[in-house]
Design a protein that fits this description.
about 280 residues, alpha/beta, four-stranded antiparallel beta sheet, Vcp-like ATPase, Chain A, domain 2, eight-stranded mixed beta sheet, 2 domains, Rossmann fold, homotetramer, about 30% strand
């Protein structure tokens, strides 16, 4: 059934390109833009997908925000993880409704929102952050997106433990991920997946070593590049500028192996990633 | 609680690198590899994350397959969508538990598995395919991964309609996506998202035009590149070879606009993607 | 022998990063920068590689400009070809001292400078341009870089002929390159190389067809991406932003083949580029 | 004047795609291919750009080899530098006819050929190599391409000095480039350019530090990616596979600065590369 927009609903007002506003609709509030204002009372009762006109006669589309819109429009105190990286994290960890996730480095909560949106309603994200001011921002972002019920935020150092066991996925988004590898190991169930998000090669090297030492296999490190295309009939081309780098993503899976077992096996080739990656 | 492996469970036997086998465990079956065989009876009763030895003394890790493992190991008759592309589709459509998805071009069912894994248990994927032989393959792949319950497969031409309304997301993975844009529009709810997957620029151009003509806005076309890194302390570098191209992904959102409304608004700039894309 | 800087010499005053000034030194002229001014009399008599101080005590290095500096600092009326693309053009056409080059689309003369710098002193670049205002800019840029002696600039439409025969290389940098393919064929010697520079896929397609039709083989189309690295001990990473696209480069070699010969041979596979390209 | 092929000339026999043979023509020799053989006597007297038929009636084009052909077809004992990287080296060092180049790490001589082809006839490349067997290969490759006259090959460790002063460009292609930075500094003229070619990040970091310490400024590190396009009317797309990484290229310019001068200036920001790079 088509959804009708009511008081208090979130709407993405879309004019064109990146001219878009994520707002909570209130009957007696105007939304102001450079292309005029829109009365809340004109929005309420419309369906998502319909248009309204601003007082200047400009056409705004009423779109239902997706989790990507909440991510891109979130209040931020920190560099947030990009949708391109979020997507690969979902694809490679096998995240699904019901998954239990531990996260270190809540930051502004952008990735937390994305994770919660996939694991809900029966799964849960336990997210830890060292700085209280970030937690406050993350809480506001999660509340706004309606995902706070699926997240437990806590202040603290995840290297002391996540306070969770049998997690399906551990997500590490801090500056010194290698310090948290042991905690993540303890929080994960057997064969659970870990992903670490780091901008520099040197962080990747240290984390990689910590993973192999602690009891992880199938270690793989990738980076994701997204190119946008300018599509125009007869003149299609890639866009002139692009994001050249955000972060390396390092994935691995927990095993129950003491050093001896790992050495006996094929440790020498653990972590050898195949040369091609799609 | 740690999961104990039982008769009939799926296990990813992991030796190293891309030497890995996805098997259904049976007590009286041996798994044969180039590094020896493993007795099913040795696997049953172990936890995921533990190791078993082959008759040649090689160490195999018992991993719980993720949806990515099912995708990479699926039986295939067609080019399958890559995890890198699946991830961005999930991130940009806002796919979540409970989403209703229509898909045209089931192919081998790899993307179908991925979609079903996220929308389950309350959501559903309605997937259409023109060729019966592909549907048979897809059905086997979905059954093996335990996701068939969340998918309705049907033989037919989606340009005649999906037989579904109020879908959240439409996924088009066929050679002539522009032919299906109208059907997708009818199947989607207002503001619902569409994504089309095409290897060539020319397919993108035609689809792009069909989207704008039919009643979609926020049209955006990107491609995803993944580079894998060879991590080694003191000698880290990107891998020598990589996948250079799989497909362009074109995203848009359904609006209720006849041509007149679209023209009155800011149609001239609809689909202008911002120059940078993360 | 170390070169001593004299009146009238060009110097690249290098402060740091992209803070650099390309100037002609005059004994009685000051060079003004945001970090103070430098007296011309302080520069004259110094060697390239030495430093001078501005009146504010800041250190400026006296560097000898390379052709890349002239390209990056040239006066421009048009989008200029990037060093990354210039480099591949040199590498793939086998440009060398003594080469005869015809160029269509002088633009601001940036690429012309680069070509002239390699073919000099015995080679020559014959460059045609439709717009007189561009030719004036190009002439000034070539004069400043000391390369004008190796270039003949002319106003006109290269589709009417370059007025040159037996050229080694033809460079086409115009919006409708397919129109010039025949002229280029006539200007080139047998087995001579052509390169066409175009931002859009559609230009590439049309040019590609014109090349095959006119008598070119070994047609190959590539694009070059350059990523810059931020190097810092223990924190090395690719830069956040990069140029996502400038142009596609299409290369081919002239043959003496009428359509019949071409058809008899392996025409069907002409232009099949191998799947990997370094 | 069109060149007529004579006894002893080099010809690239081009069938299609990467089916091509680089041969020295002899009147009484046959060239054997999977598509039949071609008589030397049929080639002699023809012009470059003409075709000959094999005994099986297949059409082969007679192309004049460029330096790229010699590079791609050279005898190799080592990983050779790719045309994409060679091109950027030429573009960023300002290499020109008459340049004096010192090179460490001759390897198979592929890059040496490319450098010699640009600096000839009045310039020269002084190339050092530690392994005699590589020098022998390089000498054969240079001789075959007709470029040996412009190169001096020597056996030895360049860290002990190149035996050259006032070079315009230093090219370092060894596993431990940081060891050679001082020698290169001594060999270069003031403001001369150095480029170091290394596959790993860690080599780049060490070299970077050595450059800053020794007296180089404008340090810049990039990598070049080339994507090939499959052009076909109405179905153009990037190729499926590509080379994901060959080497990082680190460029810098020599200055006469003791540590004190460097510190007084803007050392803290030396080597800060701008965020975008074309």
């Amino acid at each position: 059934m088509e959804e009708v927009i009511s008081e208090g609903d979130d709407v993405l007002l879309y004019l064109s390109g990146d001219k878009r506003w994520l707002v909570k609709v209130k009957v007696d509030k105007k939304v102001h833009t450079h292309a005029g204002y829109i009365e809340g009372s004109n929005i309420i009762g419309k369906r998502y997908g319909e248009a309204v006109k601003s007082n200047l006669g400009r056409n705004f589309w009423l779109l239902k925000p997706t989790v990507e819109d909440y991510v891109l429009k979130c209040e931020r105190k920190t560099q947030v993880v990009y949708p391109k990286d979020m997507g690969l994290i979902a694809a490679k960890t096998g995240l699904t409704s019901g998954s239990i996730v531990v996260e270190a480095g809540t930051g502004s909560g952008a990735l937390t929102m994305f994770l919660a949106n996939i694991v809900k309603p029966t799964g849960h994200v336990y997210s830890m952050e060292l700085k209280e001011e970030f937690l406050d921002v993350a809480r506001r972002n999660l509340k706004r997106s309606g995902l706070l019920d699926y997240v437990t935020l806590s202040l603290g150092d995840a290297s002391q433990g996540f306070g969770v066991i049998d997690a399906d996925v551990a997500v590490i988004d801090v500056g010194d991920p290698w310090r948290l590898v042991e905690s993540a190991w303890r929080a994960l169930k057997g064969a659970g997946k870990i992903v670490s998000i780091s901008p520099t090669m040197n962080q990747v090297e240290k984390t990689y070593e910590a993973l192999l030492r602690t009891g992880f296999v199938d270690v793989e490190c990738v980076e994701v590049l997204v190119r946008s295309m300018q599509v125009k009939s007869g003149a299609t081309r890639p866009s002139t500028r692009m994001i050249g780098h955000t972060a390396y993503l390092t994935f691995a899976r927990k095993v129950f192996g003491d050093e001896k077992t790992l050495k006996e096996g094929d440790t020498e080739s653990i972590g050898v990633v195949s040369d091609e990656e799609g």
